[in-house]
Amino acid sequence: MDISLVIPLLNEEESLPELTAWIARVMSEHGFIYEILFVDDGSKDKSWKIIESLAATNVSVKGIKFRRNYGKSAALNMGFAAAAGDVVITMDADLQDSPDEIPELYRMIKNDGFDLVSGWKKKRYDPISKTLPTKFFNWSARRMSGIRLHDFNCGLKAYKNDVVKSVEVYGEMHRYIPILSKWAGFKNIGEKVVQHQKRKYGRTKYGLDRFYKGYLDLLSITFTTRFGKRPMHFFGSWGTLIFLSGFVIAGYLAYEKFFLQTFKMTDRPLFYFGLLAMILGTQLFVGGFLGELISRNSFDRNNYIIEKKLGI
Ligand code: UDP
Ligand code: MG
């Protein structure tokens, strides 16, 4: 199989037939052997019915339906697990991404040796309330990760099959797949300018909360990739350091009190500082220890309930 298209969707009934026909046309023009993996992220409209009827006439159409809405990351994660193609391409279902980009993305992975190629919506057809925060967001993701991409969150991306089997996407992590890939050891990351369209049907599934959630996720992936498997290195070292500084302060104050007998210990601001440092240090240390225990008994966060499957 040459290409697996992974398409997460939530209430996109109007777009699906048009999108499928367009993909089928591009694929047959280039003679690709392909599959379309629709991951229905708990749609309440007729999306799943439409996927079933599309599958009836096109054997390449497959589907997975979540029982409820888990989010785009969960849908991608599920699609990645099922993808069998040498090259895996993700795209949005709302016709904002163009299937005409597929052959060139495929070529860049196959012939140019990229592990991942991200689309770049250089000219966007979205309101400024979205494009402006996005610019800032991409800037900080670039600074943090050292990956020179203009558009981290572009829905249109292509991957070597190995890459999607090696990264775990949950929460709202789909924005950071290039960062997760780099940290998984796939460093050859490319970019391609892609066409972007206005949303033709339906409306966006995200509000303004995407921005602060996006930032919290950026912090948590930075933290979890560095310390997720060894929390004690972070909490333990800071905890010990802070506790020791508090201990030294307390020792010094005790020395003054008993040997120099200058004044009452509690009159000095330093006393409270020392006390606070010892308490805080102990807390951090205990926190690190608990984190260590939890990460050793790692739990399964990708436990999604599937209602139906088609062709998989
Ligand atoms: N989507 C999804 N689950 C969600 C939210 C969105 O599968 O919880 C899908 C949605 O149907 C679309 C893609 O993710 O195919 C991108 O969403 P949208 O177009 O609303 O985002 P925008 O283009 O406004 O950034
Ligand atoms: Mg969209």
What can you see in these coordinates?
The structure is a single chain. With 312 residues, the chain is an alpha/beta fold. The protein folds into 2 domains: 225 residues, Spore Coat Polysaccharide Biosynthesis Protein SpsA, Chain A (Alpha-Beta Complex); 65 residues. Helices cover 49% and strands 14% of the residues. It is built from 10 helices and 8 strands. Strands 7-5-6-4-1-2-3-8 form an 8-stranded mixed beta sheet, with helices on both faces. Helix 1 links the parallel strand 1 and strand 2. Helix 9 packs antiparallel against helix 10. The longest helix is centred in the C-terminal third of the chain and has 30 residues. The radius of gyration is 25 Å and the shape is elongated. The chain starts with a strand and ends with a strand. The model has no long low-confidence stretch (mean pLDDT 91). The structure holds uridine-5'-diphosphate and magnesium ion. Magnesium ion binds next to loops. The site of uridine-5'-diphosphate (UDP) has 17 residues, from strand 1 and helix 3.
Summed up, the domain count is 2
Please state the CA-atom Rg, rounded to the nearest Å. Answer: 25 Å
Tally of DSSP helical segments: 10
Q: How confident overall, as mean pLDDT?
A: 91
What's the overall geometry? elongated
**Ligands bound, unique:** uridine-5'-diphosphate, magnesium ion
Low-confidence stretches: none
Question: How many distinct beta strands?
Answer: 8
Write down the CATH topology of the largest domain.
Spore Coat Polysaccharide Biosynthesis Protein SpsA, Chain A
Helix content: 40-55%
Largest sheet data: 8 strands, mixed
| Secondary-structure element order, N to C | EHEHEHEHEHEHHEHHHE
| Distance between the first and last residues' Cα | 14 Å
- Provide the CATH architecture of the largest domain: Alpha-Beta Complex
Share in β-strands: 5-15%
The structural class is: alpha/beta
CATH fourth-tier homologous superfamily of the largest domain: Spore Coat Polysaccharide Biosynthesis Protein SpsA, Chain A
Strand order of the largest sheet: 7-5-6-4-1-2-3-8
Q: What is the CATH first-level class name of the largest domain? A: Alpha Beta
